[in-house]
């Protein structure tokens, strides 16, 4: 057994959160030991954010030919798509993103990387299984847990596993079959279901939830269902029965049945806490087996241990993993500072995009908010872009008009979502936002419609036209 390693901070996982944490430890002038069995390159670049967006881009390019024909482009029916070639391009782009990320990470970690899985012996003592099978003990002053999550694959899919993929394997598939059943229509299921469907695959989607993409706003949810069920069937609100047949998998619900060549299991992701020997090493776990931690410090209980990224299940998104890694690394190296977190922001790149910003509808008291609504049919640019079904809901404090949350389905919604997140984080009111400039004709003009709707329901504060201020 090699000699124990003594280090200031040990970081479990060299993904987004772990790498951001490492940067902070280095900046504090402390020693760091990174531990990761690989594959390196981060979930985001390798099998997550980036390849999924390349697939959506490929699909969008091909999908657009239909509208081109409406505007007089000739010969559309002679075009054909080599889907496997398109997917090879998706994989190649993925290799480029992940390769670069891995290269940079290896360079940054240098000699400080142990390539093996870590498990806890005590809260600041780890054991790493090295590639040759040897066990390396790492004794740290502080530990950052950043070992990510993995796709949920229930046992009942086991008998048909040769026809089941997750996003861990989807981008390596060499032949995309003619039909795919998408099980789970959260952000991943809806994004990938649309990408495949727009690439000409016969897709059928199913989710036990009544609304897709984790939406809780019922009106928006219905709008999303109408929009995307025009592209592929969405069987919602019940679990699909799956049975293996010789030449495929039969998916069955009361809403229909389809035989498909392949299943994409997009049933959520589970934190990799179960691989770390946490309870035995002295950590308290909640009833779901997860660590108790403070999101303002990332600290776990009172230990010099911090948990960042998907592994804490808090906000499983790339920019949050980066922030949490930064907070965890900073606090592990320098002692505890409490950090203000950014306004929550999540976007599904479904074109039209779906976004939820700030406080969620179900977390707000309906008596304390007013909701402003605006529709794409009233927005000239959305009409040009064929996006009349766009919908935006803004929720503001019923007394002051301060914006608290929003949800939307909109073309260019990723940009609207950012404007709204920034406004919410800055504590802007509907009245102040209405006084901002809006160009014409832009999709952003949908915002003043929703803001007017809010302001018209607030107690009157002055008799000037809405959106106008007296010169000071
Ligand atoms: C298909 C898909 C699309 C997505 N799209 C988006 C998007 O558009 N926007 C967005 O914000 N987010 C998106 N996400 C989510 C985003 O990718 C994650 O939130 C983010 O990558 C999490 O980073 P992380 O550092 O927590 O984990 P990771 O990057 O997964 O890093 C964890 C690391 O820990 C290592 N590890 C595991 N077990 C051990 C162990 N026992 N010991 C040591 N190391 C270990 C792993 O090898 C890995 O390198 C998407 C995810 C998926 C799957
Ligand atoms: N654009 C983005 O920002 C983006 C894109 C993809 C993923 N992500 C991140 O990745 C995370 C994981 O995504 P995800 O879509 O896998 O998870 P998710 O938890 O968002 O969705 C999983 C879906 O599976 C459904 N489900 C669970 N069990 C089921 C069953 N037995 N049968 C049918 N449906 C079932 C759930 O109701 C849910 O709708 C997300 O939380 C998100 O943070 C983000």
From TrEMBL:
<comment type="similarity">
    <text>Belongs to the class-I pyridine nucleotide-disulfide oxidoreductase family.</text>
</comment>
<feature type="disulfide bond" description="Redox-active">
    <location>
        <begin position="44"/>
        <end position="49"/>
    </location>
</feature>
<dbReference type="InterPro" id="IPR004099">
    <property type="entry name" value="Pyr_nucl-diS_OxRdtase_dimer"/>
</dbReference>
<dbReference type="InterPro" id="IPR023753">
    <property type="entry name" value="FAD/NAD-binding_dom"/>
</dbReference>
<keyword id="KW-0520">NAD</keyword>
<feature type="domain" description="Pyridine nucleotide-disulphide oxidoreductase dimerisation">
    <location>
        <begin position="347"/>
        <end position="449"/>
    </location>
</feature>
<dbReference type="InterPro" id="IPR001100">
    <property type="entry name" value="Pyr_nuc-diS_OxRdtase"/>
</dbReference>
<dbReference type="Pfam" id="PF07992">
    <property type="entry name" value="Pyr_redox_2"/>
</dbReference>
<feature type="domain" description="FAD/NAD(P)-binding">
    <location>
        <begin position="8"/>
        <end position="325"/>
    </location>
</feature>
<dbReference type="Pfam" id="PF02852">
    <property type="entry name" value="Pyr_redox_dim"/>
</dbReference>
<feature type="active site" description="Proton acceptor">
    <location>
        <position position="440"/>
    </location>
</feature>
<keyword id="KW-0547">Nucleotide-binding</keyword>
<feature type="binding site">
    <location>
        <begin position="184"/>
        <end position="191"/>
    </location>
    <ligand>
        <name>NAD(+)</name>
    </ligand>
</feature>
<protein>
    <submittedName>
        <fullName>Dihydrolipoamide dehydrogenase</fullName>
    </submittedName>
</protein>
<keyword id="KW-0274">FAD</keyword>
<dbReference type="InterPro" id="IPR036188">
    <property type="entry name" value="FAD/NAD-bd_sf"/>
</dbReference>
<dbReference type="InterPro" id="IPR036291">
    <property type="entry name" value="NAD(P)-bd_dom_sf"/>
</dbReference>
<keyword id="KW-0285">Flavoprotein</keyword>
<dbReference type="GO" id="GO:0003955">
    <property type="term" value="F:NAD(P)H dehydrogenase (quinone) activity"/>
</dbReference>
<dbReference type="GO" id="GO:0050660">
    <property type="term" value="F:flavin adenine dinucleotide binding"/>
</dbReference>
<feature type="binding site">
    <location>
        <position position="268"/>
    </location>
    <ligand>
        <name>NAD(+)</name>
    </ligand>
</feature>
<feature type="binding site">
    <location>
        <position position="310"/>
    </location>
    <ligand>
        <name>FAD</name>
    </ligand>
</feature>
<dbReference type="InterPro" id="IPR016156">
    <property type="entry name" value="FAD/NAD-linked_Rdtase_dimer_sf"/>
</dbReference>
<feature type="binding site">
    <location>
        <position position="53"/>
    </location>
    <ligand>
        <name>FAD</name>
    </ligand>
</feature>
